[in-house]
Write a structure and sequence with these properties.
mainly alpha, 9 helices
Length: about 260
């Protein structure tokens, strides 16, 4: 569970909830079905025009799942685990990897290829293809949520204009002014909340995770290939340290020494 995503979402909802309570707690006054239809219907329709339906059906749930559940992967921890794998292979041979517990699924996949004796090109091509496909799906999820975030405020403005048109067209009927004004104001509110409290933060979180996964999975591929080439654990460590920031490189080198 990504704690920051959950806390941020709950914090945004709590902020709106507290503000409504301070203003009297009349939650019914902040609901308007016309504004809901304008925002969610309009933003969904506009997003469907930007992407194929299959991409939306796949990207929305996948993006939501990884925004909340994907664990943070530290390259430093991966280097330590890859170094241990290299040490095991050098001492006991590739078959020893079959009984070794490996925490990261992608790294475990590479270790299984080594244990099964696949050649270097097969391992590189297969793992790079898996990495690229996974990153592509994360990128799709990020783009879809960003599209929703881009559309929602614009459709909020459309809802506001529609509400104002209805209001001015019925100035002679005071009973219609209130609902029209509610639609005009709440459409903008819903659009701003949907974009800034949910979709755009999720899009940024997915983009950040995409960059983290790109680095981590590239590191894993390089490490697996070095192990496949029977490089020593110390050489594997030194070559993979290049993925770390400079201050982390110094710390890891000091620990190794």
């Amino acid at each position: 569970m990504d704690l920051a995503t959950a806390v941020g979402l709950l914090g945004g909802i709590a902020t709106v909830f507290v503000l409504i309570m301070i203003d009297g707690g009349n939650f019914a006054a902040y609901f308007d079905k016309h504004a809901v239809i304008v925002i969610f219907g309009g933003a969904t329709a506009a997003t469907m025009m930007r992407f194929p339906f299959s991409t939306i059906a796949h990207g929305l749930p996948m993006g939501l799942r990884y925004a909340f559940t994907m664990r943070a992967i530290k390259p430093r921890d991966l280097i330590e685990e890859i170094t241990k794998i290299a040490d095991v292979v050098r001492k006991s041979g590739p078959m020893a990897l079959e009984s070794m517990e490996i925490s990261d699924p992608f790294l475990a996949q590479g270790a299984r290829y080594i244990a099964d004796g696949y050649d270097r090109e097969f391992i590189r091509d297969t793992m790079e293809r898996d990495r690229d496909n996974f990153l592509m799906h994360l990128d799709e999820g990020s783009k879809i949520y960003r599209a929703f975030g881009d559309c929602a405020p614009a459709w909020g403005m459309i809802g506001t204009i529609l509400g104002m048109v209805t209001m001015f067209a019925n100035m002679s009927d005071p009973s219609k002014l209130g609902p029209a004004m509610a639609t005009a104001l709440l459409a903008t509110l819903y659009g701003a909340l949907l974009a800034n409290a949910i979709t755009l933060p999720l899009a940024d979180k997915l983009h950040m995770k995409l960059e983290e996964e790109d680095v981590s999975r590239s590191l894993i591929i390089d490490g697996i290939l070095l192990i496949r080439d029977a490089k020593s654990s110390s050489l594997v460590r030194e070559m993979l340290i290049a993925y770390l920031p400079h201050n982390h490189r110094e710390d890891l080198s000091a620990e190794a020494a």
